[in-house]
Protein backbone atom coordinates (compact mmCIF):
# COMPACT_ATOMS: atom_id res chain seq x y z
CA UNK A 1 0.00 0.00 0.00
CA UNK A 2 1.29 3.42 -0.89
CA UNK A 3 1.12 5.67 2.13
CA UNK A 4 0.52 9.34 1.63
CA UNK A 5 3.01 11.71 3.14
CA UNK A 6 1.44 14.13 5.58
CA UNK A 7 2.52 17.53 6.78
CA UNK A 8 1.81 18.72 10.32
CA UNK A 9 0.00 22.04 10.78
CA UNK A 10 -0.02 23.59 14.25
CA UNK A 11 -1.39 26.88 15.52
CA UNK A 12 -1.18 27.90 19.16
CA UNK A 13 -3.41 29.96 21.40
CA UNK A 14 -1.61 31.26 24.46
CA UNK A 15 -3.24 32.83 27.50
CA UNK A 16 -0.98 34.82 29.80
CA UNK A 17 -2.04 36.48 33.04
CA UNK A 18 -0.69 40.01 33.29
CA UNK A 19 1.29 41.18 36.32
CA UNK A 20 -0.97 43.98 37.39
CA UNK A 21 -1.71 44.76 41.03
CA UNK A 22 -5.46 44.75 40.60
CA UNK A 23 -7.91 42.86 38.41
CA UNK A 24 -8.84 44.09 34.95
CA UNK A 25 -12.33 45.44 35.70
CA UNK A 26 -12.34 45.97 39.47
CA UNK A 27 -9.86 46.90 42.21
CA UNK A 28 -9.61 43.43 43.82
CA UNK A 29 -6.03 42.28 44.17
CA UNK A 30 -4.89 40.18 41.20
CA UNK A 31 -2.29 38.44 43.34
CA UNK A 32 -4.45 35.52 44.43
CA UNK A 33 -1.75 32.85 44.68
CA UNK A 34 -1.86 31.41 48.17
CA UNK A 35 -4.99 33.36 49.13
CA UNK A 36 -7.91 31.59 50.79
CA UNK A 37 -10.71 30.82 48.29
CA UNK A 38 -13.11 33.68 47.57
CA UNK A 39 -11.18 36.33 49.50
CA UNK A 40 -10.26 38.43 46.42
CA UNK A 41 -13.84 38.93 45.34
CA UNK A 42 -16.15 41.95 45.09
CA UNK A 43 -19.60 42.63 43.61
CA UNK A 44 -18.02 43.22 40.16
CA UNK A 45 -16.32 39.79 40.28
CA UNK A 46 -19.64 38.26 41.28
CA UNK A 47 -21.61 40.03 38.57
CA UNK A 48 -24.12 41.32 41.09
CA UNK A 49 -26.90 43.53 39.68
CA UNK A 50 -26.05 47.18 39.24
CA UNK A 51 -22.27 46.91 39.26
CA UNK A 52 -20.10 48.57 36.63
CA UNK A 53 -16.70 47.41 35.46
CA UNK A 54 -13.88 49.91 34.76
CA UNK A 55 -10.85 49.09 32.64
CA UNK A 56 -7.47 48.86 34.35
CA UNK A 57 -5.18 51.13 32.34
CA UNK A 58 -2.05 49.18 33.24
CA UNK A 59 -3.48 45.98 31.77
CA UNK A 60 -4.13 47.70 28.44
CA UNK A 61 -0.67 49.23 28.42
CA UNK A 62 0.97 45.86 29.04
CA UNK A 63 -1.11 44.26 26.31
CA UNK A 64 -0.29 46.95 23.75
CA UNK A 65 3.41 46.74 24.69
CA UNK A 66 3.29 43.01 24.14
CA UNK A 67 1.51 43.42 20.82
CA UNK A 68 4.19 45.89 19.70
CA UNK A 69 6.90 43.48 20.81
CA UNK A 70 5.22 40.86 18.63
CA UNK A 71 5.33 43.27 15.67
CA UNK A 72 1.56 43.69 15.58
CA UNK A 73 -0.39 46.59 14.16
CA UNK A 74 -2.35 48.55 16.78
CA UNK A 75 -5.62 49.87 15.37
CA UNK A 76 -6.82 53.19 16.71
CA UNK A 77 -10.14 51.81 17.79
CA UNK A 78 -10.70 48.82 20.04
CA UNK A 79 -13.50 47.65 22.30
CA UNK A 80 -14.63 44.88 24.61
CA UNK A 81 -17.37 42.38 23.86
CA UNK A 82 -19.40 39.87 25.79
CA UNK A 83 -18.81 36.22 25.04
CA UNK A 84 -21.84 34.32 26.32
CA UNK A 85 -21.71 30.79 27.54
CA UNK A 86 -23.30 28.99 30.44
CA UNK A 87 -20.60 27.52 32.62
CA UNK A 88 -20.09 27.91 36.37
CA UNK A 89 -16.61 29.42 35.95
CA UNK A 90 -18.35 32.60 34.77
CA UNK A 91 -20.32 34.32 37.45
CA UNK A 92 -22.03 36.66 34.97
CA UNK A 93 -22.88 34.03 32.37
CA UNK A 94 -20.51 35.79 29.96
CA UNK A 95 -16.83 36.59 29.75
CA UNK A 96 -15.70 40.09 28.85
CA UNK A 97 -13.39 39.54 25.91
CA UNK A 98 -12.63 41.09 22.53
CA UNK A 99 -14.22 39.90 19.32
CA UNK A 100 -14.17 41.88 16.10
CA UNK A 101 -12.05 44.86 17.17
CA UNK A 102 -9.10 43.36 19.07
CA UNK A 103 -6.39 45.71 20.31
CA UNK A 104 -3.91 44.34 17.77
CA UNK A 105 -3.50 42.16 14.68
CA UNK A 106 -1.02 40.84 12.15
CA UNK A 107 2.26 40.38 13.96
CA UNK A 108 5.11 37.90 13.84
CA UNK A 109 8.03 36.55 15.79
CA UNK A 110 10.97 34.46 14.70
CA UNK A 111 12.07 31.13 16.09
CA UNK A 112 15.46 29.45 15.64
CA UNK A 113 15.19 26.45 13.32
CA UNK A 114 18.15 24.44 12.00
CA UNK A 115 20.51 27.38 12.39
CA UNK A 116 18.11 29.77 10.66
CA UNK A 117 15.24 31.96 11.70
CA UNK A 118 11.67 31.07 10.84
CA UNK A 119 8.80 33.55 10.87
CA UNK A 120 5.69 32.59 12.81
CA UNK A 121 2.69 34.81 12.22
CA UNK A 122 0.68 36.27 15.09
CA UNK A 123 -2.99 36.61 14.20
CA UNK A 124 -3.95 38.84 17.11
CA UNK A 125 -3.34 39.79 20.71
CA UNK A 126 -6.38 40.73 22.75
CA UNK A 127 -7.47 41.20 26.35
CA UNK A 128 -10.06 39.38 28.37
CA UNK A 129 -10.81 38.46 31.96
CA UNK A 130 -9.71 35.20 33.51
CA UNK A 131 -12.45 32.89 34.81
CA UNK A 132 -13.15 31.43 38.25
CA UNK A 133 -11.41 28.24 39.26
CA UNK A 134 -13.41 25.04 39.55
CA UNK A 135 -12.38 22.34 41.96
CA UNK A 136 -13.92 19.00 41.09
CA UNK A 137 -14.86 16.81 44.04
CA UNK A 138 -15.74 13.14 44.19
CA UNK A 139 -17.37 12.12 47.45
CA UNK A 140 -15.72 9.17 49.19
CA UNK A 141 -18.97 7.26 49.55
CA UNK A 142 -20.00 5.04 46.66
CA UNK A 143 -23.09 6.34 44.97
CA UNK A 144 -22.43 9.89 46.21
CA UNK A 145 -22.72 12.60 43.60
CA UNK A 146 -19.70 14.34 42.19
CA UNK A 147 -19.81 18.11 42.40
CA UNK A 148 -17.68 21.20 41.85
CA UNK A 149 -16.54 24.03 44.07
CA UNK A 150 -16.14 27.53 42.68
CA UNK A 151 -13.32 29.82 43.81
CA UNK A 152 -13.84 33.26 42.27
CA UNK A 153 -10.42 34.71 43.20
CA UNK A 154 -9.01 34.15 39.69
CA UNK A 155 -12.06 35.61 37.97
CA UNK A 156 -11.23 39.02 36.54
CA UNK A 157 -7.45 38.67 36.57
CA UNK A 158 -6.24 40.32 33.33
CA UNK A 159 -5.71 37.63 30.74
CA UNK A 160 -3.96 38.32 27.45
CA UNK A 161 -4.71 36.00 24.56
CA UNK A 162 -2.09 35.57 21.84
CA UNK A 163 -3.23 33.66 18.78
CA UNK A 164 -0.68 32.42 16.26
CA UNK A 165 -1.17 31.62 12.61
CA UNK A 166 -1.06 27.88 11.77
CA UNK A 167 2.58 28.31 10.81
CA UNK A 168 4.26 25.60 12.84
CA UNK A 169 5.15 22.36 11.10
CA UNK A 170 6.31 20.20 14.00
CA UNK A 171 5.94 19.85 17.77
CA UNK A 172 9.51 21.15 18.11
CA UNK A 173 8.60 24.36 16.25
CA UNK A 174 5.63 24.77 18.59
CA UNK A 175 7.89 24.32 21.60
CA UNK A 176 10.38 26.87 20.22
CA UNK A 177 7.59 29.34 19.56
CA UNK A 178 6.39 29.05 23.14
CA UNK A 179 9.91 29.52 24.51
CA UNK A 180 10.51 32.64 22.39
CA UNK A 181 7.09 34.04 23.26
CA UNK A 182 7.57 33.46 26.96
CA UNK A 183 11.06 35.03 26.85
CA UNK A 184 9.55 38.16 25.29
CA UNK A 185 6.86 38.36 28.01
CA UNK A 186 9.50 37.92 30.70
CA UNK A 187 11.74 40.58 29.15
CA UNK A 188 8.78 42.96 29.03
CA UNK A 189 8.04 42.11 32.66
CA UNK A 190 4.32 41.77 31.89
CA UNK A 191 3.82 38.15 32.99
CA UNK A 192 5.50 35.52 35.12
CA UNK A 193 5.23 33.07 32.23
CA UNK A 194 4.81 30.24 34.69
CA UNK A 195 3.15 27.29 32.94
CA UNK A 196 3.04 24.98 35.94
CA UNK A 197 1.15 27.58 37.97
CA UNK A 198 -1.20 28.33 35.10
CA UNK A 199 -0.24 31.95 34.54
CA UNK A 200 0.93 31.00 31.03
CA UNK A 201 -1.35 28.47 29.29
CA UNK A 202 -1.34 27.00 25.86
CA UNK A 203 -3.97 25.34 23.68
CA UNK A 204 -3.08 23.95 20.28
CA UNK A 205 -4.90 23.38 17.01
CA UNK A 206 -3.41 20.40 15.23
CA UNK A 207 -4.17 19.01 11.80
CA UNK A 208 -2.43 17.04 9.07
CA UNK A 209 -2.57 17.57 5.34
CA UNK A 210 -1.06 15.78 2.36
CA UNK A 211 2.34 17.27 1.60
CA UNK A 212 2.22 19.76 -1.22
CA UNK A 213 -1.40 20.74 -0.72
CA UNK A 214 -2.72 23.78 1.06
CA UNK A 215 -6.11 22.30 1.82
CA UNK A 216 -7.23 22.62 5.41
CA UNK A 217 -8.13 19.29 6.95
CA UNK A 218 -10.20 18.94 10.09
CA UNK A 219 -8.34 20.29 13.07
CA UNK A 220 -8.37 19.05 16.62
CA UNK A 221 -7.96 21.31 19.63
CA UNK A 222 -5.61 20.00 22.31
CA UNK A 223 -5.83 21.33 25.87
CA UNK A 224 -4.47 20.67 29.37
CA UNK A 225 -0.78 21.00 28.60
CA UNK A 226 0.94 22.31 31.70
CA UNK A 227 4.60 22.49 30.73
CA UNK A 228 6.79 22.97 27.67
CA UNK A 229 7.52 19.26 27.78
CA UNK A 230 3.82 18.44 27.96
CA UNK A 231 3.16 20.62 24.88
CA UNK A 232 5.84 18.79 22.94
CA UNK A 233 4.69 15.34 24.00
CA UNK A 234 0.98 16.06 23.52
CA UNK A 235 1.51 17.43 20.01
CA UNK A 236 3.81 14.56 19.03
CA UNK A 237 1.18 12.12 20.28
CA UNK A 238 -1.67 13.90 18.55
CA UNK A 239 0.17 14.07 15.20
CA UNK A 240 0.81 10.32 15.30
CA UNK A 241 -2.75 9.60 16.37
CA UNK A 242 -4.16 11.55 13.44
CA UNK A 243 -1.70 9.96 11.01
CA UNK A 244 -2.77 6.51 12.17
CA UNK A 245 -6.46 7.40 11.70
CA UNK A 246 -5.83 8.75 8.18
CA UNK A 247 -3.62 5.83 7.18
CA UNK A 248 -6.28 3.30 7.99
CA UNK A 249 -8.72 5.27 5.89
CA UNK A 250 -10.54 6.99 8.73
CA UNK A 251 -11.51 10.63 9.05
CA UNK A 252 -10.52 13.09 11.76
CA UNK A 253 -13.39 14.31 13.90
CA UNK A 254 -13.38 17.97 14.84
CA UNK A 255 -13.20 17.87 18.63
CA UNK A 256 -11.38 19.01 21.74
CA UNK A 257 -8.96 16.53 23.24
CA UNK A 258 -7.32 16.78 26.63
CA UNK A 259 -3.72 15.76 27.29
CA UNK A 260 -3.40 13.20 30.10
CA UNK A 261 0.18 13.63 31.16
CA UNK A 262 0.70 10.54 33.28
CA UNK A 263 -0.74 8.30 30.56
CA UNK A 264 0.94 10.16 27.71
CA UNK A 265 -2.21 10.30 25.56
CA UNK A 266 -4.91 12.74 24.46
CA UNK A 267 -8.53 11.82 25.13
CA UNK A 268 -11.68 13.22 23.62
CA UNK A 269 -13.40 15.71 25.94
CA UNK A 270 -17.12 15.80 25.97
CA UNK A 271 -17.81 18.64 23.58
CA UNK A 272 -19.54 21.66 24.98
CA UNK A 273 -23.20 21.52 24.04
CA UNK A 274 -23.19 25.05 22.71
CA UNK A 275 -19.69 25.43 21.45
CA UNK A 276 -19.36 28.23 18.93
CA UNK A 277 -22.65 29.77 19.90
CA UNK A 278 -21.15 32.54 21.96
CA UNK A 279 -23.52 35.27 20.71
CA UNK A 280 -20.88 37.96 21.01
CA UNK A 281 -22.07 41.53 21.32
CA UNK A 282 -20.40 44.81 22.32
CA UNK A 283 -20.00 45.20 26.09
CA UNK A 284 -22.41 48.04 26.87
CA UNK A 285 -20.80 48.81 30.25
CA UNK A 286 -17.37 49.64 28.83
CA UNK A 287 -16.84 52.60 26.54
CA UNK A 288 -14.60 51.87 23.52
CA UNK A 289 -10.92 52.81 23.54
CA UNK A 290 -9.13 55.03 21.07
CA UNK A 291 -5.34 54.83 21.24
CA UNK A 292 -3.52 57.89 19.98
CA UNK A 293 -0.65 57.27 17.58
CA UNK A 294 1.66 59.36 19.79
CA UNK A 295 1.00 57.11 22.75
CA UNK A 296 1.60 53.96 20.70
CA UNK A 297 4.92 55.37 19.47
CA UNK A 298 5.87 56.33 23.02
CA UNK A 299 5.28 52.75 24.11
CA UNK A 300 7.25 51.44 21.14
CA UNK A 301 10.18 53.63 22.15
CA UNK A 302 10.07 52.14 25.64
CA UNK A 303 10.34 48.54 24.45
CA UNK A 304 13.40 46.75 25.74
CA UNK A 305 15.78 44.87 23.52
CA UNK A 306 14.55 41.32 23.06
CA UNK A 307 16.44 38.19 24.05
CA UNK A 308 17.36 37.00 20.57
CA UNK A 309 18.63 40.41 19.48
CA UNK A 310 20.52 40.84 22.72
CA UNK A 311 22.07 37.39 22.44
CA UNK A 312 23.27 38.22 18.95
CA UNK A 313 24.66 41.57 20.09
CA UNK A 314 26.49 39.95 23.02
CA UNK A 315 28.24 37.71 20.51
CA UNK A 316 29.09 40.24 17.83
CA UNK A 317 29.79 43.26 20.03
CA UNK A 318 31.32 41.77 23.16
CA UNK A 319 32.82 38.76 21.39
CA UNK A 320 31.19 36.20 23.69
CA UNK A 321 30.64 32.60 22.64
CA UNK A 322 27.13 31.48 21.78
CA UNK A 323 26.87 29.41 24.96
CA UNK A 324 28.00 32.36 27.10
CA UNK A 325 25.52 34.64 25.34
CA UNK A 326 22.78 32.04 25.82
CA UNK A 327 23.20 31.89 29.57
CA UNK A 328 23.73 35.62 30.07
CA UNK A 329 20.60 36.56 28.11
CA UNK A 330 18.42 33.78 29.52
CA UNK A 331 17.18 36.29 32.06
CA UNK A 332 16.90 40.00 31.56
CA UNK A 333 18.25 40.61 35.07
CA UNK A 334 21.43 38.67 34.34
CA UNK A 335 21.97 40.42 31.00
CA UNK A 336 21.34 43.83 32.60
CA UNK A 337 23.78 42.99 35.39
CA UNK A 338 26.45 42.01 32.90
CA UNK A 339 26.16 45.29 31.04
CA UNK A 340 25.99 47.32 34.26
CA UNK A 341 29.32 45.76 35.32
CA UNK A 342 30.92 46.69 32.02
CA UNK A 343 29.59 50.21 32.33
CA UNK A 344 31.12 50.45 35.81
CA UNK A 345 34.41 49.24 34.35
CA UNK A 346 34.27 52.05 31.81
CA UNK A 347 33.72 49.72 28.87
CA UNK A 348 31.47 51.40 26.32
CA UNK A 349 28.23 49.39 26.33
CA UNK A 350 26.16 49.42 23.18
CA UNK A 351 22.50 50.08 23.48
CA UNK A 352 20.38 47.58 21.62
CA UNK A 353 16.76 48.23 20.73
CA UNK A 354 13.79 46.06 19.95
CA UNK A 355 14.72 43.41 17.49
CA UNK A 356 18.22 44.74 17.04
CA UNK A 357 20.76 46.26 14.66
CA UNK A 358 24.13 44.82 13.78
CA UNK A 359 26.94 46.69 15.54
CA UNK A 360 30.69 46.70 14.87
CA UNK A 361 32.61 44.72 17.50
CA UNK A 362 34.16 46.30 20.58
CA UNK A 363 37.97 46.72 20.71
CA UNK A 364 40.13 43.87 22.05
CA UNK A 365 40.66 45.28 25.54
CA UNK A 366 36.93 45.86 25.94
CA UNK A 367 36.18 42.34 24.78
CA UNK A 368 38.75 40.99 27.22
CA UNK A 369 36.97 42.71 30.08
CA UNK A 370 33.60 41.52 28.83
CA UNK A 371 34.96 38.00 28.81
CA UNK A 372 36.25 38.40 32.35
CA UNK A 373 32.91 39.74 33.64
CA UNK A 374 31.14 36.89 31.85
CA UNK A 375 33.48 34.36 33.49
CA UNK A 376 32.71 35.73 36.93
CA UNK A 377 28.97 35.81 36.36
CA UNK A 378 28.77 32.34 34.88
CA UNK A 379 31.35 30.91 37.30
CA UNK A 380 31.64 32.02 40.92
CA UNK A 381 28.57 34.22 40.92
CA UNK A 382 26.25 31.57 39.48
CA UNK A 383 27.75 28.96 41.77
CA UNK A 384 26.98 31.05 44.85
CA UNK A 385 23.51 32.00 43.56
CA UNK A 386 22.68 28.34 43.00
CA UNK A 387 24.10 27.33 46.36
CA UNK A 388 21.94 29.89 48.16
CA UNK A 389 18.90 29.50 45.91
CA UNK A 390 18.98 33.19 45.00
CA UNK A 391 18.16 35.04 41.84
CA UNK A 392 20.68 37.61 40.60
CA UNK A 393 18.22 40.40 41.34
CA UNK A 394 18.35 39.40 45.02
CA UNK A 395 22.16 39.30 45.23
CA UNK A 396 23.85 41.75 47.57
CA UNK A 397 26.81 42.30 45.27
CA UNK A 398 26.15 45.31 43.09
CA UNK A 399 27.58 45.51 39.55
CA UNK A 400 29.72 48.42 40.76
CA UNK A 401 31.18 46.25 43.54
CA UNK A 402 32.03 43.47 41.14
CA UNK A 403 33.66 45.99 38.82
CA UNK A 404 35.67 47.40 41.71
CA UNK A 405 36.93 43.91 42.56
CA UNK A 406 37.95 43.27 38.96
CA UNK A 407 39.85 46.56 39.01
CA UNK A 408 41.68 45.49 42.17
CA UNK A 409 42.64 42.27 40.39
CA UNK A 410 43.82 44.11 37.34
CA UNK A 411 45.96 46.47 39.45
CA UNK A 412 47.48 43.47 41.19
CA UNK A 413 46.16 44.43 44.62
CA UNK A 414 44.60 40.98 44.89
CA UNK A 415 45.45 37.79 43.05
CA UNK A 416 42.92 35.71 41.15
CA UNK A 417 42.88 33.17 43.92
CA UNK A 418 42.25 35.78 46.59
CA UNK A 419 39.58 37.35 44.44
CA UNK A 420 37.47 34.22 44.82
CA UNK A 421 37.59 34.53 48.60
CA UNK A 422 36.98 38.26 48.46
CA UNK A 423 34.04 37.69 46.15
CA UNK A 424 32.54 35.10 48.43
CA UNK A 425 32.82 37.57 51.30
CA UNK A 426 31.20 40.28 49.16
CA UNK A 427 28.42 37.85 48.28
CA UNK A 428 27.76 36.93 51.89
CA UNK A 429 28.13 40.33 53.55
CA UNK A 430 27.28 42.80 50.79
CA UNK A 431 30.48 44.70 51.66
CA UNK A 432 32.57 46.19 48.88
CA UNK A 433 35.80 44.63 47.68
CA UNK A 434 37.85 47.60 48.92
CA UNK A 435 36.32 47.43 52.38
CA UNK A 436 37.10 43.75 52.63
CA UNK A 437 40.59 44.03 51.23
CA UNK A 438 41.63 46.97 53.39
CA UNK A 439 40.18 45.51 56.56
CA UNK A 440 41.55 42.02 56.40
CA UNK A 441 44.44 39.89 55.31
CA UNK A 442 43.50 39.84 51.65
CA UNK A 443 45.78 42.61 50.44
CA UNK A 444 48.48 41.47 48.18
CA UNK A 445 52.01 42.21 49.37
CA UNK A 446 53.67 44.10 46.56
CA UNK A 447 56.30 45.74 48.72
CA UNK A 448 59.62 44.35 47.43
CA UNK A 449 61.35 44.53 50.82
CA UNK A 450 58.58 42.62 52.53
CA UNK A 451 58.49 39.92 49.87
CA UNK A 452 62.27 39.72 49.81
CA UNK A 453 62.47 38.81 53.49
CA UNK A 454 60.01 35.96 52.94
CA UNK A 455 61.98 34.79 49.88
CA UNK A 456 65.19 34.74 51.92
CA UNK A 457 63.57 32.72 54.68
CA UNK A 458 62.28 30.19 52.16
CA UNK A 459 65.63 29.88 50.38
CA UNK A 460 67.42 29.29 53.67
CA UNK A 461 64.97 26.59 54.69
CA UNK A 462 64.99 24.78 51.33
CA UNK A 463 68.62 24.30 50.39
CA UNK A 464 67.75 21.05 48.67
CA UNK A 465 65.45 22.75 46.20
CA UNK A 466 67.96 25.51 45.65
CA UNK A 467 70.52 22.83 44.78
CA UNK A 468 68.08 21.13 42.41
CA UNK A 469 67.41 24.39 40.61
CA UNK A 470 71.10 25.00 40.17
CA UNK A 471 71.42 21.59 38.59
CA UNK A 472 68.85 22.62 36.04
CA UNK A 473 65.59 21.30 37.48
CA UNK A 474 63.13 23.96 36.47
CA UNK A 475 60.31 22.54 38.65
CA UNK A 476 62.34 23.45 41.70
CA UNK A 477 61.52 27.09 41.00
CA UNK A 478 57.79 26.32 40.93
CA UNK A 479 58.19 24.57 44.26
CA UNK A 480 59.99 27.54 45.77
CA UNK A 481 57.36 29.96 44.48
CA UNK A 482 54.76 27.76 46.13
CA UNK A 483 56.65 27.84 49.42
CA UNK A 484 56.88 31.62 49.37
CA UNK A 485 53.15 31.89 48.64
CA UNK A 486 52.41 29.52 51.47
CA UNK A 487 54.70 31.40 53.84
CA UNK A 488 52.94 34.68 52.94
CA UNK A 489 49.50 33.07 53.25
CA UNK A 490 48.91 33.65 49.57
CA UNK A 491 49.40 37.39 49.85
CA UNK A 492 52.75 37.85 48.11
CA UNK A 493 52.48 39.23 44.59
CA UNK A 494 53.26 36.12 42.49
CA UNK A 495 55.17 37.89 39.72
CA UNK A 496 57.27 39.73 42.27
CA UNK A 497 58.02 36.45 44.04
CA UNK A 498 59.02 34.92 40.76
CA UNK A 499 61.42 37.67 39.78
CA UNK A 500 62.94 37.98 43.26
CA UNK A 501 63.52 34.22 43.44
CA UNK A 502 65.20 34.14 40.04
CA UNK A 503 67.29 37.12 40.95
CA UNK A 504 68.46 35.55 44.22
CA UNK A 505 69.13 32.12 42.72
CA UNK A 506 71.06 33.59 39.83
CA UNK A 507 73.01 36.00 42.02
CA UNK A 508 74.09 33.16 44.25
CA UNK A 509 74.90 31.07 41.20
CA UNK A 510 77.04 33.65 39.46
CA UNK A 511 78.31 36.05 42.16
CA UNK A 512 80.44 37.98 39.68
CA UNK A 513 77.44 38.85 37.57
CA UNK A 514 76.09 42.40 37.62
CA UNK B 1 -39.59 30.97 13.73
CA UNK B 2 -39.29 27.22 13.93
CA UNK B 3 -39.97 25.09 16.96
CA UNK B 4 -36.32 23.97 17.05
CA UNK B 5 -35.10 27.57 17.06
CA UNK B 6 -37.26 28.45 20.04
CA UNK B 7 -36.13 25.36 21.91
CA UNK B 8 -32.50 26.18 21.17
CA UNK B 9 -32.85 29.75 22.41
CA UNK B 10 -34.64 28.52 25.54
CA UNK B 11 -31.79 26.12 26.18
CA UNK B 12 -29.15 28.82 25.73
CA UNK B 13 -31.05 31.06 28.12
CA UNK B 14 -31.54 28.17 30.52
CA UNK B 15 -35.30 28.68 30.47
CA UNK B 16 -37.64 25.71 30.68
CA UNK B 17 -40.67 25.97 28.38
CA UNK B 18 -43.85 23.92 28.27
CA UNK B 19 -45.29 22.72 24.95
CA UNK B 20 -47.82 25.55 24.90
CA UNK B 21 -45.15 28.11 25.70
CA UNK B 22 -42.96 26.93 22.84
CA UNK B 23 -45.86 27.49 20.47
CA UNK B 24 -46.70 30.87 22.00
CA UNK B 25 -43.11 32.10 21.78
CA UNK B 26 -42.81 30.90 18.19
CA UNK B 27 -45.40 33.54 17.42
CA UNK B 28 -44.01 36.22 19.76
CA UNK B 29 -40.42 35.91 18.64
CA UNK B 30 -41.43 35.88 14.98
CA UNK B 31 -43.28 39.15 15.53
CA UNK B 32 -40.27 40.72 17.18
CA UNK B 33 -38.01 39.63 14.33
CA UNK B 34 -40.47 41.00 11.79
CA UNK B 35 -40.48 44.29 13.62
CA UNK B 36 -36.70 44.52 13.60
CA UNK B 37 -36.71 43.58 9.92
CA UNK B 38 -38.20 47.03 9.26
CA UNK B 39 -34.88 48.50 10.39
CA UNK B 40 -33.13 46.58 7.65
CA UNK B 41 -34.80 48.85 5.12
CA UNK B 42 -32.70 51.79 6.29
CA UNK B 43 -29.61 52.35 4.15
CA UNK B 44 -26.67 52.13 6.58
CA UNK B 45 -23.96 51.52 3.98
CA UNK B 46 -22.14 54.75 4.86
CA UNK B 47 -22.41 54.42 8.64
CA UNK B 48 -19.88 52.61 10.81
CA UNK B 49 -21.27 50.09 13.31
CA UNK B 50 -22.18 51.51 16.70
CA UNK B 51 -20.89 49.59 19.69
CA UNK B 52 -21.80 52.21 22.26
CA UNK B 53 -24.47 54.85 22.45
CA UNK B 54 -22.93 56.75 25.35
CA UNK B 55 -20.58 59.39 23.95
CA UNK B 56 -17.63 58.32 26.05
CA UNK B 57 -14.30 56.75 25.25
CA UNK B 58 -11.07 55.90 27.08
CA UNK B 59 -12.50 55.58 30.56
CA UNK B 60 -9.86 53.86 32.67
CA UNK B 61 -8.91 53.37 36.29
CA UNK B 62 -5.35 53.25 37.58
CA UNK B 63 -3.91 49.98 38.76
CA UNK B 64 -4.53 50.26 42.48
CA UNK B 65 -5.75 47.30 44.52
CA UNK B 66 -8.22 47.79 47.33
CA UNK B 67 -9.75 45.37 49.84
CA UNK B 68 -12.33 42.88 48.63
CA UNK B 69 -15.56 41.81 50.35
CA UNK B 70 -15.46 39.69 53.50
CA UNK B 71 -15.92 36.08 52.47
CA UNK B 72 -19.19 35.65 54.38
CA UNK B 73 -20.67 38.40 52.23
CA UNK B 74 -19.26 36.92 49.03
CA UNK B 75 -20.89 33.58 49.78
CA UNK B 76 -24.04 34.99 51.38
CA UNK B 77 -26.23 34.43 48.32
CA UNK B 78 -24.84 31.05 47.44
CA UNK B 79 -27.51 28.33 47.68
CA UNK B 80 -24.84 25.82 48.70
CA UNK B 81 -21.45 26.57 50.20
CA UNK B 82 -18.58 24.24 51.07
CA UNK B 83 -14.89 24.78 51.96
CA UNK B 84 -15.30 28.52 51.49
CA UNK B 85 -16.53 27.99 47.92
CA UNK B 86 -19.80 27.98 46.02
CA UNK B 87 -20.95 24.41 45.53
CA UNK B 88 -22.39 23.59 42.12
CA UNK B 89 -23.44 20.48 40.24
CA UNK B 90 -20.64 18.48 38.70
CA UNK B 91 -19.17 20.15 35.66
CA UNK B 92 -16.70 17.95 33.92
CA UNK B 93 -15.16 18.90 30.68
Shape of chain A: elongated
Major beta sheet of chain B, specifics?
2 strands, antiparallel
Under the CATH scheme, the architecture of the domain at 1-58 in chain B is: Orthogonal Bundle
CA-atom Rg of chain B in angstroms = 22 Å
How far from one another are the termini of chain B? 32 Å
Radius of gyration of chain A: 32 Å
Mean pLDDT of chain A: 89
- Strand residues, percent of chain B: 5-15%
Whole-Å distance between the termini of chain A?
A: 95 Å
Strand order of the largest sheet of chain A: 6-7-10-1-11-12-13-14
Structural class of chain A: alpha+beta
Order of helices and strands of chain B: HHEHEE
- What would you call the structural class of chain B? alpha+beta
Number of H- or I-type helical stretches of chain A: 16
Annotation field: number of helices of chain B: 3
In what order do the strands lie side by side in the largest sheet of chain B? 2-3
What is the domain total for the residues of chain A?
Answer: 3
CATH homology group of the domain at 1-58 in chain B: Glu-tRNAGln amidotransferase C subunit, N-terminal domain
Which percent range fits the helix content of chain B? Answer: 25-40%
The percentage of residues in β strands of chain A lies in 15-25%
What can you tell me about this protein's structure?
By secondary structure, chain A is of the alpha+beta class. Chain A has three domains: 290 residues, no CATH class; 138 residues, no CATH class; 62 residues, Arc Repressor Mutant, subunit A (Orthogonal Bundle), CATH 1.10.10.410. Chain A contains 16 helices and 16 strands. Chain A starts with 5 loop residues before the first strand and ends in a 5-residue tail after the last helix. The mean pLDDT of chain A is 89. Chain B has a domain of 58 residues: Histone, subunit A, CATH 1.10.20.60. Chain B has three helices and three strands. In chain B, helix 1 packs across helix 2. The longest helix of chain B is centred in the first third of the chain and has 21 residues. The model of chain B has no long low-confidence stretch (mean pLDDT 90). At the A-B interface, helix 1, strand 2, helix 2, strand 8 and strand 9 of A face strand 1, helix 3 and strand 3 of B. Strand 9 of chain A pairs antiparallel with strand 3 of chain B.
Amino acid sequence: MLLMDYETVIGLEVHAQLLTRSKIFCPCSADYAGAEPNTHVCPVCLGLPGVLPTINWQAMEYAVMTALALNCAIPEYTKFDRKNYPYPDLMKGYQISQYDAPLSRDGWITIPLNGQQKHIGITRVHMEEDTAKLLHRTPPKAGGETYSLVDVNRSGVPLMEIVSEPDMRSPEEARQYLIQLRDILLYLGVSTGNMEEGSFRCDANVSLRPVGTSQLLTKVEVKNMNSFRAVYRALAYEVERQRAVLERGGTIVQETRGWVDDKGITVSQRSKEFAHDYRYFPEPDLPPMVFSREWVEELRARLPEFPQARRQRFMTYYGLSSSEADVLTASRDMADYFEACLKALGVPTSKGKGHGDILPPLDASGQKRAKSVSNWLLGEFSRLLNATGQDISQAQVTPENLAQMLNLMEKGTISGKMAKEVFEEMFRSGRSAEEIVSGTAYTQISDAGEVESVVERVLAANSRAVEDFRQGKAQALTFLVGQVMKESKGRANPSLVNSLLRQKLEVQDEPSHG
Amino acid sequence: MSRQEVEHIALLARVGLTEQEVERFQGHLSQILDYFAILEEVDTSGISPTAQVIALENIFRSDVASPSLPREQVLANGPQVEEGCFKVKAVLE
